[in-house]
Model the fold of this input.
Amino acid sequence: MKSNLFILALGILFFQSCSSFYFRANYKQANDLIYSTSRLQTKPFLKAHMQNGDVFILNKNWNIDSTQTFISGYGTQYDFNRKKIEEGSFYIVISNVALFETNNELINPEALNVGILSTVAVINVAINLFCIAQPKACYGSCPTFYLNENDNFHYADAEGFSNAIVPSMEYSDIDALKIVKPIGNEFNITMKNEALETHYVNDVKLYAFPVNENEFVFHTPENKFYLCQNIYNLTKAIGNEGDITTLLTNPDINERFSLSDNKNLNSKEELFFNFNNVSDINNLGFILNFRQTLMTTYLFYNSMGYMGNEFGDLFLKLEKDSTLKKKFDATTQLLGGIDLYTFNEKTKNWDLENTYNETGPIAINKQLIALKQKNYTSTVKIKLVLNKGFWRIDFAGLTNINKEVSPTILGPTSLLKNGKPNVETFATINNDNKYIISKPGNEFKFGFKLPSVDTKYALFLYSKGYYMEWMRKDWLKDKNLLKLRQMVYKPNRFLKREAKNYKKYESQMESIFWNSKIDTKSFSLYEK
Amino acid sequence: MKNRLITLIVVIVSISSCATIPNYLPIAKNIGSHPFGSFTNIKTVSNDLVSGELISVDSSEIIILTKVYNQLKVVKINIKEVKNVKLFYAKGTNYGWTIPLFSLMSITQGFFSILTLPFNLITTIAVTVNGNQMYSYQNMTVKQLKMFARFPQGLPSNFDLTLIK
Done:
């Protein structure tokens, strides 16, 4: 008990005369300094703060004599202004020392920062190497349109004329936007160039249809517009992988897609849909929200790579030779669209209704096919036949078509280029013979005035033009005219032989890119 | 958007490269042999900021050697007037260069840049800020603060503060 009290008293005394904070310790008594540093294999630098304000900084071989009268060592003496007085061996009388100071060496103080930066560097280098090895995987195509100018391509509302890769292939494209009830009658849409391409935009218009509550307007692959009501949700959807109903019940960008066949890219699959309890089986239309996977981008960029340094000549040939133009996308023609079949209860056969086909992996297309077949019970059975790994489907539903409708066509009333009004560009967009030229990074904000203020509108975007893909230096080494020839003239053989290569690309790209969404923005047919 | 991003990067690089930590501080491995006091930012209750070398601390006042219009001046601050203290005992490491470098790496990543650019910006800004502030303490007691002064033992008796440089 007595000895415990003694140790406690010693401890209290020690902590009163010695204070430490992280790496630094101060000692008023030489005894404490000896006690504290006696077990250290390497002594720290010692600072002896003198009563007159000078300081001696002794390097690691200092010693205190056995009588604790003086301290000896090699170091430097500084005055109170820290001006160096002398460097050499010193014998310092301890009674003149006001305070001793030691500092422990900081061990790897930068380890955390260096660790984080190294990890980030490794990730970046890996992605850069991937982009060098697979540049076709890292870049997009065609102009993208956004209702919210701050969105990125994950949330693109439309993409224009994806197939128009040379001037003579220019065409117009219509994409469904949302049903909106804007504040006032102003409506804006932003067009961005987010790829290494030059876009030549001849026209941008807005197609507006006034709608009442619970009315919708859908457009068909033939660009007809139908006023519809009632949305019937899927009862059951089956794919090769099993039940896919939940993936297709809501338009939530939670999409169903399959991976390509590893032996032949040209391999079909079937999806079966049941709609039970359809209350009105007259004038049915099938709605599908869909987009392509990155297979199209891969094939297109491969074809450019195969052209190598003859890219310019071959594109000129493509521009002039209408036969070649028809055959150039032979592979994507073979992969085909999404064929829609309905089950005929009388003949017990599947009847082909029509085909969805819209190029582009970025914006989701929302299209309707008016069903011709009338022999249903209250259960409507639908079959989709599509190429494996080529399509992503977000939503499938049935609706009742009321009538075909025509749009009010609106031209832009204002235009901002990269955030600033641009009179010249505005004049260009209103002139059918001129083109807005959009380079990578350009943003054009088109303003429209809707016909009336307090009306809901179903809106569609009309865009017309073409784009020129930029050849990348990295692609030149891929030149292979035989492969290009095979792609154009023997697409079936090409798709078989390319299956393995695409699998490597697909497994990396599809999983990394699309699954790496930061969050899933839900959206509906109505703007929230 | 692009312009805003470039502006943001320029601002961040400027901020990170003009941090107010002075050159007289040692690098981290030399803290044991550095004869001066630590650099201190003191915010007073009247929201004045006094920055400079910590000369001495006692129970009633903190003495700072500060620079006013390029002239060195000793300032005494009553302990009761102190709102907070931030102390830098070594030079931070400037990682500001990583912000443009990693942003450039993102720009060459095509589609991926939409994810990697914000990720790279957030991590490099965080590392840069952390690097600048790394060798610093806040919310110290008077006793702890005293240990980082030029005179941790207190001012020598009859000391003329006007002689301090």
In short: Chain A has two domains: 18-103, 139-515. The first strand of chain A starts at residue 18 and ends at 21.
